[in-house]
Amino acid sequence: MQFDTKIAIVIRTDLQAWQKLNVAAFLTSGIAAAFPECIGDPYGDASGTSYHALIGQPILIYGADGPALSRALDRALTRNVKPAVYTEDMFKTTHDAANREAVRAVARADLNLVGIAVRAERKVIDKIVDGLKFHG
């Protein structure tokens, strides 16, 4: 199935494995919260067990170093695509309000980004992630 939109997550490649997974999970929740229409129907198995609904389209995950991640953020904002962001400072906090304060305390140009997530029209996402490779 061809979707009109794409979801892309860009994660800094020098993180530890647990950090990458944590960042991907948090950023995906940002997309789900911003675009509830991307959530599919709940799942169920042949035994009658019910499961939560998931995002109903593929999520592409790219790797980047710090400068490429900042470039992707700039490309998104230039194209009026509002991203979800995760910064290195957020690893030091223990709750959502502290996460927001950690981002609010730093100017955009100085954010120590470890990941962003975006959802937009396919061609727009292609321009935002141009030159990046899928995360290995």
UniProtKB/TrEMBL annotation:
SUPFAM superfamilies: Peptidyl-tRNA hydrolase II (SSF102462). It comes from Bradyrhizobium nitroreducens. InterPro entries: DUF2000 (IPR018988), Pep_tRNA_hydro_II_dom_sf (IPR023476). The lineage of its organism: Bacteria, Pseudomonadati, Pseudomonadota, Alphaproteobacteria, Hyphomicrobiales. Pfam families: DUF2000. This is DUF2000 family protein.
